[in-house]
Amino acid sequence: MVSVAETLAAYRAALAEVGETITVRRLNPSPAAPTDVQALARITGYDPSEIVPGIQQGDRKVILLAEHVTLTPPLRAGDKLVVRGRVLNIETVDDSTRRLGGVLVAYELLVRG
Questions:
Q1: In degrees rounded to 5, what are phi and psi of residue 6?
Q2: Where do the H-state alpha helices sit in the chain?
Q3: Helix or strand or coil: residue 67?
Q4: Whole-model pTM?
């Protein structure tokens, strides 16, 4: 059986190879500045066969390394990602699919924008 540490190491290695550093942004009530954290992520489009209700053409799937996201409360819909200068809205946050032994290894996000 694969350990959490081995799985996390595999995610780190994979995202270091094929991912990129992005900014996770939480907008705060005025006049406070937004809270930004840097994180490693892999951004892909959806295959046409994956376009179902709730997913629109142009939406993207993001695998985001959880250990970098230090926001309190945790990541949520409505937070933003800044990818290559473009601000994307987080539509859904899946914090269950990429857990191992109850430990969140990575978020799977649907983003739009």
A1: -65, -40
A2: 4-18
A3: helix
A4: 0.91
